[in-house]
Amino acid sequence: MANYIPVIGLEIHAQLLTNTKIFCSCAADFGGEQNTRCCPVCTGLPGTLPVLNRQVVNYAIKGGLALGCDINRYSKIDRKNYFYPDLPKAYQISQFDLPLCIDGKVKIDIGEEEKTIRIHRIHIEEDAGKLVHDNIDNASLADYNRCGVPLIEIVSEPDMSSAEEAKAYVEKVAGLLQYAGVSLCRMEEGSLRADVNISLKTPEATRLGTKVEIKNLNSLKSIVRAVEYEIERQTKMLVNGEEIIQETRRFNDNRGVTTSMRSKEDAHDYRYFKEPDVIPVSITDEDIESIREELPMLIDERFALYVKEYSLNRADAKILVASKEISDFYNEAISVYPNYKAVANFIVVELLRYVNEGELDSRNIPFTARAFAELVKMAEEEVVNKNNAKAILKIMLEGRMSAMEIAKAEGFLMNDSTDEIEEVVNQVTSEFTSEVEGYLAGKEKLFAFLMGQCSKRLAGRANPKKIKEILELKLAALK
Ligand SMILES: [Zn+2]
Fold first, then answer.
1. How many whole angstroms from 22 Cα to the centroid of ligand 1?
2. Distance, CA of 286 to CA of 248 (rounded, Å)
3. Cα→Cα distances 279→76, 82, 299, Å
4. From ligand 1's centre to the CA of 418, what distance in Å?
5. Same domain membership, residue 249 and residue 154
6. Of 16, 39, 139, 463, which has the highest C-beta tally within 10 A?
7. Residues 313-372 pLDDT 10s
8. Residue 424 shares a structural domain with residue 366
9. How far is the CA of 49 from the centre of ligand 1 (A)?
10. Inside any domain, residue 211
């Protein structure tokens, strides 16, 4: 079978985190009763005029900087004409030839390999409304709440060649926008969606094959499935000598297939022209610098810091930086207790277990990083043993008690006085006389048994090293 290389580019739409819409003062956040968050401006009634929300421009620039873009000092707003029932104006205000941001790059990890995906451009635009298909009345209803919600469209170069790379790219872009604080990037709420462009070529081909666009993928899983399906479909067609048609397809999540929606439009089909109602945007170097200063340390820099300065292993560092909330939590915890590895390990192994099992929302941890640092410190300094530290964490997730309060209430504190240990060692050695005799006769394995009996009775309250020491002394005395 012929060997084809997939060539994949993505267009990601991310909703910006502004309070209000791009051209009016309607609320822009997710939800709301249908058609309660719209006004004459965002529904495009005659006689109304849009006013560009400055925060949209600032957030778009900030997102662009996070994605390594250059910012155009002069940027123009354009009108994209098309009719659709969820677009009452019959045009969308967007940007055509002078977008806000250009020429970015994003690094992704594929196994051990690092790959750079170039970003062609980022522009701002308004979202359209939503059609609700009513099965009962066999009608379609329009909800205009999303009309005018501010979006950035991030257009990549066709630099990806597998579903895995497309997924890693979307995750990285979403992560960077979250770090920059400009988008929630919640695919399940529609604040991040992707269109995938995909074509196949033979290794020796100098030109790209005919591309197909798959619209509106709203989960990482659908992106992966749609890309894999499309690679297979196009490969079969090419092998059979069939011609690929340039078209827009939709992915059917239930059936796992893509189906044709319409033949693909070219830019001229939209009759783009300069939006007469919105003035162009001028951006100064000072504007850009003051926005750049607001950016926190981003994913790649934090990863390098964790690996190089804190000596974390790459796998743990990668897990920590994958979510800004977790990375911030880690940074705060180590500012209180700078045992980098112990804190990282307790987050990755213990805390994130609850997140992965869906029992804890990493955006909503019910205790502070400082309280968590105290727990890790107690475990490291053997104030409580490791198992009891885990039990304390579980209780911390439920209530408002600190690690120390829980340790006291549950009797988890290690007993440093040797009295209790000696008492238990005496009990055990007088109860298990045959094991003691066996040990003294040379069956060294029995030491572990006696040790286990002592530990069990001390229920994690004593340092194992100390128990061992006292038990050894006692046995030596019995010789
Ligand atoms: Zn409005």
1. 9
2. 41
3. 8, 22, 35
4. 73
5. yes
6. 16
7. 999 999 999 999 999 999 999 999 999 999 999 999 999 999 999 999 988 899 999 999
8. no
9. 11
10. yes
Query: Closest by alpha carbon to 467, among 429, 426, 432, 421?
Result: 421
Q: In this structure, are 115 and 14 located in the same domain? A: yes
* Beta strand extents in 243-392 (DSSP E only): 247-252, 257-263, 273-274, 281-282
Is the domain of 192 the same as that of 308? no
Cα(148) to ligand 1 centroid in Å equals 7
Q: Which of 386, 409, 432 is the last residue of a domain?
A: 409
Examine residue 136 and state whether it is found in any structural domain, yes or no: yes
Supply the pLDDT for residue 133.
Answer: 84
Residues 228 and 226: their CA atoms lie apart, in Å, by 6
Task: Based on the fold, state whether residues 235 and 305 are members of the same structural domain.
Answer: no
**What spacing in Å lies between the alpha carbon of 138 and ligand 1's midpoint?**
29
CA distances to 33, 141, 251, 255, 323 from 135, in Å: 20, 11, 21, 20, 39
Range of the domain at 55: 5-287
CA of 38 to the centre of ligand 1 (A): 4
Q: How far is CA 134 from CA 138, 142, 380, 411, in A?
A: 6, 10, 59, 60
Q: Based on the domain organization, do 98 and 224 belong to the same domain?
A: yes
CB 203 within 8 A of CB 10: no
Give 106's strand partners: 117
Does some domain include residue 292? Answer: no
Domain end residue (candidates: 266, 287, 308) = 287
Length of the chain: 479
Q: What's the one-letter identity of residue 231?
A: I
What residue ranges of the chain have pLDDT lower than 70?
Answer: 1-2, 264-265, 267, 416-417
Distance 37 CA to ligand 1 centre (A): 7
Tell me the whole-structure pTM to 2 decimals.
0.85
Question: Would you call 141 helix, strand, or coil by DSSP?
Answer: strand
Residue 373 lies in a domain: yes
- 14 and 170 in contact (C-beta within 8 Å)? no
- Chain segment 40-74, per-residue pLDDT in tens: 999 999 999 999 999 999 999 999 999 999 999 99
pLDDT at 305: 97
Residues 279, 136: one domain?
yes
**Residues 120 and 250 both lie in one domain:** yes
Tell me the DSSP string of 413-476.
S----HHHHHHHHHHHHHH-HHHHHHHHTT-TTHHHHHHHHHHHHHTT-S-HHHHHHHHHHHHH
